[in-house]
């Protein structure tokens, strides 16, 4: 009897381990409503969009292995029955992005979650520009925090700034998004780390957010790892 029970317990534990999932808790610390969104790159698709009032949070269970990104929209309205946002919009016409990505500029939080007992990778990316400050704090395990805690809109060079209808800056494009040149996008004959060094524009972002990706080959100072099995708190306007 006891041996059977032990067997069943072992089976239950390995089943639970086999479907390990990571919890992303997404918190809105901004003084206005935001609409976080996710885009799954590989793995099971999770909730693709929802609104958060100031100080509200929402948890998303993400079965590992998974890779994808999280960002947040703001300045959203449902005028004429179609949902759209002045920053980070995904063009779906709904609160859910349904597999559509952010229209740049948007601050991206990127994850690659492993299913085995190995390593998760995460970063904050400004490669597509900036729209909101964010922090990523692994819950437990002594893993490093990464963030872009500064409102870059406030100091965005005019040639990169995106304005809303009333003239407020609602995003700051990367030089790649603004000028679409190989030396800024690390494309064409600039598609290696050697031929695509930092530029004065990527350095502008790096100076404000030293832990975030400021251009495509910014890996060394911008990718963070944690052993698999941790949960993550993602706070907008930390
Ligand atoms: C980068 O350099 C270009 C060309 O010299 C200049 O026009 C631009 O203002 C600089 N941008 C920043 C953010 O320093
Ligand atoms: C300087 C500036 O305009 N910053 C803005 C960045 O975006 C947020 C959200 O709309 C505004 O509140 C800031 O004023």
Automatic annotation (TrEMBL):
Its ancestry begins with: Eukaryota, Viridiplantae, Streptophyta, Embryophyta, Tracheophyta
Q: Give a Pfam family name.
A: Thaumatin
Q: Which domain of life is it from?
A: Eukaryota
Its signal peptide is 1-21
Name this polypeptide is given: Thaumatin-like protein
Question: CDD domains, per this entry?
Answer: TLP-PA
PROSITE patterns, per this entry? THAUMATIN_2 (PS51367)
According to the UniProt entry, the coiled-coil residues are none
Query: Which keywords fit this entry according to its UniProt record?
Result: Disulfide bond, Signal
Task: Provide the disulphide bond pattern.
Answer: 30-237, 76-85, 90-97, 143-226, 148-209, 156-172, 176-185, 186-196
Gene Ontology biological process terms from the UniProt entry: defense response
Xref: SMART domains: THN
């Amino acid at each position: 009897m006891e041996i059977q029970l032990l067997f069943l317990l072992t089976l239950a534990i390995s089943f639970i381990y086999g479907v390990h999932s990571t919890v992303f808790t997404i918190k809105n610390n901004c003084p206005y409503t935001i609409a976080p969104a996710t885009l799954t790159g590989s793995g099971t698709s999770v909730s693709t969009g929802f609104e958060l009032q100031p100080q509200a949070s929402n948890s998303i269970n993400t079965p590992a292995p998974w890779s994808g990104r999280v960002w947040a929209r703001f300045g959203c309205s449902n005028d004429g029955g179609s949902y759209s946002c002045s920053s980070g919009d995904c063009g779906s016409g709904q609160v859910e992005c349904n597999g559509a990505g952010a229209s740049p500029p948007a601050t991206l939080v990127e994850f690659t979650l492993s299913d085995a007992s190995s390593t998760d990778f995460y970063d904050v990316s400004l490669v597509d520009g900036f729209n909101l400050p964010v922090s990523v704090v692994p819950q437990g395990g002594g893993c490093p925090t990464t963030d872009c805690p500064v409102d870059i809109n406030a100091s965005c060079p005019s040639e990169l700034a995106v304005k809303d209808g009333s003239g407020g800056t609602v995003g700051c494009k990367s030089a790649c998004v603004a000028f679409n040149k190989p030396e800024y996008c690390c494309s064409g004959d600039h598609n290696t780390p050697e031929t695509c060094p930092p530029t004065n524009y990527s350095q502008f972002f790096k100076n404000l957010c030293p832990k975030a990706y400021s251009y495509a080959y910014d890996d060394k100072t911008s990718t963070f790892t944690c052993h698999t099995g941790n949960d993550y708190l993602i706070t907008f306007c930390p």
